Fold:
Amino acid sequence: MEIKVRNVCPVTVNKLDRLAKEKGSSRQAFLKEQLETLSIVEEEAKREQAIDDLYDRTMEAMEECSDAMTNLNRMFHKITGEDEE
Structure:
């Protein structure tokens, strides 16, 4: 599919040409890569947020499990009369 952009400031075009050259790429290839990247940025940010949320929930669950195990261990030692180590 083809996309055309008109009336781009010459300063902007020069900057794009320079950036493309720095990457060893043509303006067309550089812009194509930039547009493809731009098209997935929002979805990638959503995925990253979902991973961060899952990590936070997992850490909270692990802390709750650790607290429960500590309490069970204390109760066990109290019931058996053993000293906690």
User: Anything to note?
Assistant: The mean pLDDT is 94.
